[in-house]
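Before drawing any conclusions, I needed to go through one protein's amino acid sequence and its C-alpha cells, quoted below without any editing.
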Amino acid sequence: MNTPRRFAKPFVRRFALPLILTLAAAPTLAADDCAVPLAQWQPREAVRQKAAAQGWKLERLKVDDGCYDVRGRDETGRAFKAKLDPHTLEIVKMKWRQRERRARR
C-alpha cells in the first residue's frame, strides 16, 4: 500500500499547494481600483467640469470600486465608460463602446 503515499506528494505539490496559494491571494485581487481616503476626494462638480473641458457629455456619474465611474459620449458622439481617480481625476480605465445599446422597454 505504498501507492497512495507516492501519489499524495506529487498531487500536493502540483495541484493542492498552488490552489491554496491562489485562494489566499484572492482578497488582494478584489481590492478597489482607487484607494483614496474620502477626505481627499474632489467633488462631483469637479468631475463634471473635467468632462466638459474634454468635450464629454456625461450620461451617468456614480462611485464604483472607490473610483468615479462615468458614462457618456465624447466630442465625436462615440459612447464610452471611464473610471477616474477621485483625488487627481486622472483616467484609471477607459472603454469605448463599439455598438449602441438597445433602448429598454
